[in-house]
Amino acid sequence: MAETSIPLSTKEHDKGRWQRFRESDFFYAFKRSPVAIVSFAVVALLVLAAVFAPLIAPTNPFDPASLNLMNGFTPPMEPNAFTQESFLMGTDDQGRDVFSTILYGMRISLFVGISAVLFAMVLGIVLGLVSGYFGGWTETIIMRIADVQLTFPSILVAMLIFGVAKGFTPVEYRDQMAIWVLILAIGLSDWVQFARVVRGATLVEKSKDYVAAARLIGRSPWAIMIRHILPNAMSPVLVIATISLALAIIAEATLSFLGVGAPPTQPSLGTLIRIGQGFLFSGEWWILFFPACTLLGLALSVNLLGDWLRDALNPRLR
Amino acid sequence: MTTPVLSIRNLSVEIPTRGGVVKPVDGVSYDIAKGEILGVVGESGAGKSMAGNAVIGLLNPPAHISAGEIWLNGTRIDPLQGEAMRRLRGKEIGMIFQDPLTSLNPLLTIGDQLAETILTHLPVSRSEAEKRAVAALEEVGIPGAAERIDSYPHEFSGGMRQRVVIALALCAEPSLVIADEPTTALDVSVQAQIIALLKRLCRERGTAVMLITHDMGVIAETADRVAVMYAGRLAELGDVRDVLTAPQHPYTHGLMASTPLASLGQRRLHQIPGSMPRLTQMPDGCAFHPRCPQAQDKCRQAPSPDLADGRASCWFPMMAEAAE
Amino acid sequence: MLAFIIRRIGQSILVLLIVGLVAFSMFRFVGDPIDNMLGQERTIEDVERLRTQLGLDQPFPVQYYRFLEGAAQGNFGVSYRQGRPVSEILLERAPATLELAAVSGMLAIVFGIALGVFTAIRRNGATANIIMATSLIGVSLPTFLIGILLIYLFSVELGWLPSFGRGETVQIGESWTTGFLTISGLKALILPSITLGLYQMTLIMRLVRSEMLEVLRQDYIRFARARGLTDRVVNFRHALKNTMVPVVTVIGLQLGAIIAFAIITETVFQWPGVGLLFINAIQFVDIPVMAAYLMLISVMFVGINLIVDILYVFIDPRLRVDRTGAH
Amino acid sequence: MPKLTYAVALSVAVSSPVMAAEFQWAGKTDPQTMDPHAVSSAPVLGFLNNVYDGLVRMSKDMEVEPSLAESWEPIGAGEGWRFTLRQGVTFHDGATFDADDVLFSYERASDESSDVRSWFSPVTEVKVVDDYTVEFYTNAPNPLFPASIANWMMMDRGWAEANNATRPDKESGNFATLNVNGTGAFKLEDRQPGLSTTLVPNESWWDNAEHNITKATFTPIQNPATAVAALLSGDVDFVEPVPIQDAARLEADPNINVIRGIETRTIMLGFAHEADTLKYGASAGQPNPFQDVRVREAVAKAINVDAILRTIWRGSAEPASQLVTPALSGFSEVNAARPAFDIEGAKALLAEAGYADGFGFGLKCPNDRYPNDEAVCQAITAMLAQVGIQVELDAMPVSNYWPELRADNFDMYLLGWSPGGSLDHEHPLRFLASTPNEEKRLGSWNFGGYSNARLDEALPSILSEIDPDKRQALIDEVTGIYQDEVAYVPLYVQPLVWGTRSNIQLTQRPDNFFMLRWVTVN
User: Fold this and answer.
1) What is the CATH number of the domain that holds D447?
2) Is C253 on the interface with A (CB under 8 A)?
3) What does pLDDT average to over chain C?
4) Which chain B residue's Cα is nearest to C243?
5) Do chains B and D touch (3 or more CB pairs under 8 A)?
6) A218 in contact with B, Cβ within 8 Å
7) How many C-beta atoms surround the C-beta of residue C22 within 10 A?
8) All structural domains of chain A with their residue ranges
9) Where are the domains of chain C?
10) Mind spelling out the 3-state secondary structure of D200-243?
11) Which of A120, A216, B142, C188 could form a disulfide with A191 if both were Cys (CB 3.0 to 4.6 A apart)?
């Protein structure tokens, strides 16, 4: 329709990858969008803070020996009445430094979120490729399962998986298990979107000549799928992954609120909020406020970034 | 001399992009008289559709008219905005798009779509509108129009759908129809029927037609006059016979040579070397000079001359004898 | 069409069986009801007697079979905790959840679609951008937190709205209680339904916006504009209707999600519905109640999906003739 | 008999007749049943005390006082007890209360299907002497018997028979599960399990009504934050319990009164005394250090109870030295000291026992059973880490917790104990300190299998000794034993925190029973 085709990427191979990226429209659009820059900066900052938590955090809240209960309920930036110690964001009921706990909690939240999304992504991509490429009853079965999965709200799926997994895990592993079950539960409730998009792209690409040609010269189906078909589906997958990450972080928080999430000795952001909400009316607002703001900041930035990505890559998303 | 239905004067369209402002339409002027069919030809990206969209006021932002004037039946319409422009669309200017499969709303019956258009523009009752809808369908040759009025678009074949689209474009009896590649998406066997239909209807009603196409064959069969566009500029403008038989612009010449026209008795097809420049990377001088076999120094330095001085916008137009 | 519906129903029954199995197997792990039922002074014989009485000494497949057998006849057994038939309890609690879900669903759908359309039409407007940004806050905060904050603001600080419960209810007929007919009942509905509906509203709004933007790019919209149709007709008659096709599916799924997420809202607001019942049942390992709740919820999901599928056929004429199973 | 040091009794000002009013209250748990013999749990018995009466009842300061029995006396030299019934008492439906109803209530409450029949395990026979005299014979002298049946509530034989509810049925329920016909100060008007329960005053109650309530509605609210919000916004007049962290905020509100007291529940740590190896944590599979009394003592010394009480409990709880609180009878004054917080001492003891480098083990903890249970366990984890013991904390809902403990899946665990029934030191001795013996129904909650021959030997004498001084001497002796052996580490006595709107006056009884008849709405 529009006759002016504005090139999407300059295909000048003599330039380095970074150079090409810097000159791409994608990067140009990024530079032009203050929302994208700010949200990217926030996400990057929070992720770095989480990764380097052991270096940044003044205390290690997961090391029980370092805690002093007498520090409990210290307000932010005020010396504790008994120990005279002072904390940037105050302390919680156990005398843990809220700032450090947030940094460490974010590690768990991000780890769970990212792992769950990766898991959902891999599962969704594989099933989407397989069902789109092979078709037939494989496709029927996979897409029927996807339908069923969609009818069941993620939170119930997660609770069911949690309940079942808990029964199968020996008691002594339950603490470690909790996090993996969270990943499994959130991932399992999230793969369908990936599978659908990838399947759609596969169906489109499969009918193209170069795929037929690749088939004729005897390339293995997996090689075709991964080398040729998958790259065409990557931009919508990227967008879905971003938005799923925000959802996964929230889902983790909600499950932790319902008591089926990360244990309080190794709290995630969600667990911190669950603990903190008990102190909302009692005046210790900082135990809830700071983790909630961090969660909001994280999820909001990831969401904004996903939103912007969706517009920038403009994939036809359902 | 009567006022032309459409008169475009020095029309330019600009799009600001990160690489600077580009001009997909650059100083184009032409008229279309009542009952006349003007063929607009050119490669993809030559600015033909953009000009059409500018006329009907449907440029996609940030594209906008940067200079020039558009006159419709003696009224200047390019400054019109919103509601005033909307009243013209459908009523004074009808438009036909390329793909009949996507031009119709799949969820509404064609009767609904016809009736709503009629009701929008004409002061008639609902039942009258429905009657006229049936009549419009009959006119475009839909068999059993009265029954099919309640059908949905997906129940029609491609050719039938394009007939419906034509009925929709013409149902409020506009004085100008812009047909943007109306046959490109259709089967070859159907193309001729649709062109014939369009031609017949417009002749009967005296509707002026801007027929945008890249198909010289269609132009040859249908158009009274032809406008050749290249890189946003008008390359050549003249009566269809003259232009086709004795092109003056080397581009038109190349275009003719590359078109299999049985009527012109060509022996073999030519190809114009190279491709049209990107709008962001327009060469200095005449935009066609890098591909032009006759290009001289002047062509590389000065922009091609305005069309007002002749039929072709070329410093060294090819005269009849130069043609093969 | 009929074959399609029959196939859908067949699938639904399969879903129900699977849900039943998963749900039932989960209950083995949530704890042991015996300790909750017997007091401090329990003896071994008490435990054994009760175990036999509840059928908990049977092997798992037998327990599941018995459960299915009963469920097929609408008999979900007797609540361990309340000592009353589970079906009776569920019927008693269902109106509260259904009314809450209905109001939240309406809020979500009406505001979601309206705001979605608005932000799509005014795509670059300041108001639309503010709405979009605000909506992201809605999906970036967990529901329970929103509920608690609403209570804090509107009940505790301002004192405008009740902090918990359904207010006064009126009995209608045999088994329905409604909060719609009293002032206090209506006031009590406000905060929970906002809490429950907000997330779904945001989802619907964002979906409607992106679908609508997609539709607005379509040729038939350009053609409609080229025909001189007014913006209102183009946006609402042409664009919105096409936008609704994919949106209806998602709305159906979201209605299911609303009923599931009611668990959280009902916990926060002490809303006397089936979600609260379920959470209490988990706490007290009231297996018959848990099983019945999950089956009930699954039946609702499946029902909603069936309705959505049929609705789909009504909205999209293309499906009436050449309907194939795949989406 | 029972001493009252901590019970808080807000006196009710009955100066002038106050306006009658409706009353709304909320609690964490809905009573499971309206049947007073079907479930022996505090929420049920506490609630039903408003609609049913027993032969005796507890006064505001936990003294046994006459209720449906006007008086009672021992038979002979401790063969049993004779109760003289109050005359002219009627049930809510108008039927007269007499000795036959007592006999019926005995039959009903001591039936196999009853949850409270253990109250009657010492009873060998019940004799109706005349319409208003009943005799209870016991297998041994039983000085505590009248107090132990304070929660045994009287039902009408005619009503139960007419409604097919002659035996409690806790599994599938019967008419008495949802309906009430008692002699109590209030009648049941409406009952919607889990939602609300409405009571109205019994106009023909035998006692003088102190309250001015015209209608009272109870709503269970699980989420403590919601309950606090409801109280703050005035949606309810009374909430129990108030989360300890919200007490200060509520106290600051002029519209709200906070009533604090000390409950009868002692929170303690228990050990796996019998297990040969540790089951959890870093040292799983290695010999069980808790078999060494020095290690147990080190644990007791390493825990800074003061810090727990000051922060988590915000100064509202009292440290505990033994299995019962000072408010209860049988409290051992001579053993009232608890081990001091002493990190160095704890380390020295561990080194002496051969654990200078510490060890790792698993601590089980409920997370929804006692207020702040999980927070306390976390704090303990941190404190033990400071003497080199690595704790792997496993917190779980109570529905999973008891089965885990019964399956011996623990190295150490948290337990709260409130002596239901007798409200005497003998109760935890019987359940927690005695060597487990299924036949004699002893030690049934002694999960760790603590065992001491002298304690076992002394227990029967404590149960039957009528002379208070001799009895106390025996209790002092065994208390010393279990303290020296650190059978348990008593931590603190759980506080009771109630919240009311400031126009409400009521009385908080240390057993956490809320008596509607002591409420005045101003």
Assistant:
1) 3.10.105.10
2) yes
3) 79
4) B107
5) no
6) no
7) 16
8) 31-53+95-313
9) 92-273
10) EECCCCCCCCCCCEEEEEEEECCCHHHHHHHHHCCCCCEEECCC
11) A120
Q: Which run of H or E residues covers position D484? A: helix D468-484
Q: Which residues of D touch A259 (CB under 8 A)?
A: 367, 397
Euclidean distance between CA atoms C98 and C93, whole angstroms: 9
Most A-contacting residue of C136, C220, C225, C282 (CB-CB within 10 A), to test interface = C136
Question: Can you read off the two tokens belonging to residue A21?
Answer: 């990226």
> Measured between beta carbons, which residues in chain C are less than 8 angstroms from residue D368?
283
The phi and psi torsions of D273 (rounded to 5 degrees) equal -70, -35
Give the tens place of pLDDT for each residue, D472-497: 999 999 999 999 999 999 999 988 88
CATH architecture entry for A31-53+95-313: Orthogonal Bundle (1.10)
Mean pLDDT, residues B145-168 taken together: 84
Token pair of B43, please? 């490669």
Q: Report the distance separating Cα C265 and Cα C100, nearest Å.
A: 10
Check residue B42 and report its DSSP letter. -
Burial zone of B46 (CB within 10 Å; 0-12 exposed, 13-18 middle, 19+ buried): buried
Residues A64 and A265: their CA atoms lie apart, in Å, by 9
Task: Verify cis geometry, omega within 30 degrees of 0, for the bond prior to B62.
Answer: yes
Tell me, what's the pLDDT at B95?
Answer: 87
CB D266, CB D416: distance < 8 Å: yes
CATH of C92-273, picked from 3.40.30.10, 3.30.70.20, 1.10.3720.10, 3.30.70.330, is 1.10.3720.10
Query: Residue written as tokens 């210290």?
Result: A74
**pLDDT at D11 (0 to 100):** 38
Residues C60-93 pLDDT 10s: 778 778 777 877 777 777 777 777 788 888 888 8
Separation of CA A29 from chain center: 24
Transcribe C173-193 into DSSP letters: TTTEEESTTSHHHHHHHHHHH
Neighbours of chain C (3+ CB pairs under 8 A): A, B, D
**How confident is residue D8, by pLDDT bands cut at 50, 70 and 90?**
very low
DSSP H helices in D3-97: 42-48
Task: Check CB contact under 8 Å for C151 and D229.
Answer: yes
Token look-up 């299907």 returns D113
| C38 in D contact zone (CB under 8 Å) | yes
Q: Which amino acid is at D159?
A: W
Structural domain boundaries of chain B? 6-92+174-323, 106-173
Assess whether D186 and D275 both reside in one domain.
no
The predicted model gives C239-260 an average pLDDT of 80
At C195, is the secondary structure helix, strand, or coil? helix
ipTM score over 0.85, yes or no? no
- DSSP structural state of residue D281: S
Q: How far apart are the first and last CA of chain B?
A: 36
Do D and A count as touching (3 or more CB pairs closer than 8 A)?
yes
Residue C36 has pLDDT above 70, yes or no: no
Query: What does each C-alpha distance from B22 to B12, B279, C215 come to in angstroms?
Result: 10, 6, 28
- Low-confidence residues in chain A, pLDDT < 70: 1-16, 22-23, 148, 151-155, 159-160, 162-176, 259-261, 264-265, 314-318
B216 neighbors B261 (Cβ within 8 angstroms): yes
The full length of chain D comes to 522
Structure tokens at A301: 């930035």
Q: Which pLDDT score is estimated for D484?
A: 93
The Cα of C301 is separated from the nearest Cα of chain A by a number of Å equal to 6
User: Which phi-psi region, left, alpha or beta, contains residue D66 (left: φ > 0; alpha: ψ -120 to 50)?
Assistant: beta
At A299 the three-state DSSP class reads: helix
CB-CB: which of C44, C82, C270 is closest to D226? C270
Contact A69, D304 (CB under 8 A): yes
- Write the pLDDT tens digit of every residue in A229-262: 787 777 778 888 888 888 888 888 887 777 666 7
